[in-house]
Amino acid sequence: MADIDSRLKELGLTLPEAAAPVANYVPYAQSGQIVHISGQISLGPDGLVTGRLGDGVSLEDGQAAARLCALNLIAQIKAACGGDLGQVKRIVKLGGFVNAHPDFYDIPKVINGASDLMVEVFGDAGRHARSAVGVAVLPLNAAVEVDAVVEIA
Amino acid sequence: MADIDSRLKELGLTLPEAAAPVANYVPYAQSGQIVHISGQISLGPDGLVTGRLGDGVSLEDGQAAARLCALNLIAQIKAACGGDLGQVKRIVKLGGFVNAHPDFYDIPKVINGASDLMVEVFGDAGRHARSAVGVAVLPLNAAVEVDAVVEIA
Amino acid sequence: MADIDSRLKELGLTLPEAAAPVANYVPYAQSGQIVHISGQISLGPDGLVTGRLGDGVSLEDGQAAARLCALNLIAQIKAACGGDLGQVKRIVKLGGFVNAHPDFYDIPKVINGASDLMVEVFGDAGRHARSAVGVAVLPLNAAVEVDAVVEIA
Ligand SMILES: [Ca+2]
Fold first, then answer.
1. Residues B84-127: pLDDT tens digits?
2. Shortest distance, CA B24 to any CA of chain C (angstroms)
3. Which of A131, C14, C45, C108 has the greatest number of beta carbons closer than 10 A?
4. What are phi and psi of C124, to 5 degrees?
């Protein structure tokens, strides 16, 4: 696997600090070579992207929110790998949850914001299975939440 | 495991073409003997079954929609097995998502449409753990989406 | 791992009977050392805790409902371990679903009711990755549903 830190730099991406646990759960848990990453919400350098797709949040803003979720996932994956993203063998699965009005159908396009970042950063190893659904509400009114299953070396 | 293709024929079932990836995600991703299958929506030979349970879509139509999701999952599982469904050791988990009005409580009966097909096709190897929830909206206004975790030989 | 049955007793907790399968799915399915536990709803000794957070169900009642889900999960985990909870190596992942009004944002606090019980019972082995989302409706109008991925010896 190529040097992922260099790739992040080429893409102009800075990983956020991996958020510390705030309750009796942890950001990631490993079993064998599989790591489950906790659902990451659309928190960015300017704060949490909140609100509902189809009710005040545009598709473009939703996609950017999903990209933030993916960036937060990558920060947790890096922590899970002891700082070495070269240990990532495969992004196996993303579970995408969009805070969506019942009449908003473009759920896949929103979650593409997360999927695209995984492939930009990890190449073919970033191509994952996924589910994408529209939910009634997310933690702290976040616009998007994405969790992940990752295989590491 | 018995000859699954014969079993499908006995049941009068024709697998759809495994849908090609339409974005930066893939229909399935394998890690060891575990394959994660992407969420499959209720797309059938007559098009996508759309709409909301408890708001225009009947229980029977919802169950048929869930069955379509399972058929689409089996098509992807077959692709993941290189065409040989005899490689399936266990349907481990189904995640069922129903496009549901907040007053519609029969979520499990809807998802039974998918669970039943798995057991009809795979017998005891088709008995899976599952979750079943009612969501605000699904991709393209699909009535049902189901994803899966499968163990293969 | 310490004697979990003693720990349950210290905590004054009595495990419910592990609910029998009511359809073509099973309460848990194992693949290797990983067990997927089916979504457990907020069923307690006084019946099912029903209703919607932010629309008639208080945060405290929601947390108690989540705790019931976790207790039901532990009952299923015990069954999966052949009765010996000492076989649990790690609670790997909880998937938390809250029946929530679109204006109810305290989803994480609700699911903490489940997360806290896992740590009370299993100690560090109970610290898990998790996702937590607010959904439109749950089976039988349950207030909370939680599923799990567990590693056993
Ligand atoms: Ca899952």
1. 999 999 999 999 999 999 999 999 999 999 999 999 999 999 99
2. 22
3. A131
4. -60, -30
Instruction: Identify which has the larger pLDDT, C132 or A17.
Output: C132
> How would residue A140 be classed by pLDDT, with cut points 50, 70 and 90?
very high
> With an 8 Å Cβ cutoff, are B128 and C29 in contact?
yes
The pLDDT of A33-42, averaged and rounded, is 97
Cβ–Cβ contact A129 with C under 8 A: no
Out of B136, B141, B145, the one facing A135 most closely (by C-beta) is B136
**For residue C144, what is the nearest residue in chain B, using CA coordinates?**
B133
- Kindly list the distances between the CA atom of residue B88 and the CA atoms of B7, B68, B85, C92, in Å, as whole numbers in the listed order: 14, 19, 6, 24
Q: What is the ipTM of this complex?
A: 0.96
Least confident segment among A44-53, A59-68, B12-21, C130-139: B12-21
**CATH H-level superfamily of A4-11+27-151:** RutC-like (3.30.1330.40)
How far is the C-alpha of B71 from the C-alpha of B64, rounded, in Å?
10
Is the pLDDT assigned to residue C21 strictly greater than 90? no
**What is the least distance, in Å, from the CA of B150 to any CA of chain C?**
9
What is the CATH topology of the domain spanning B28-152? 60s Ribosomal Protein L30; Chain: A; (3.30.1330)
DSSP string across C97-139: EEEB-TT---HHHHHHHHHHHHHHHHGGGG-BEEEEEEESB-G
C52 or B1, which is more confident:
C52
